[in-house]
Design a protein that fits this description.
It is built from 1 helix and no strands. 96% of the residues lie in helices and 0% in strands. The chain is mainly alpha-helical.
Amino acid sequence: MNRIHVQIDELYRQLGRLKSLAWYMDEDIEQSERALKRLALVWDGAAADDFL
């Protein structure tokens, strides 16, 4: 019975790590999206300047 409890505890620890990793990945994705949007705005501005 004790072995089962140890395995369950380990699974909970791993789940916690996965949740943390997922949160960091979400943050990275959001930051990447914001960076791409800023780059697109700068690119659009540079392209507009080329036509003026």
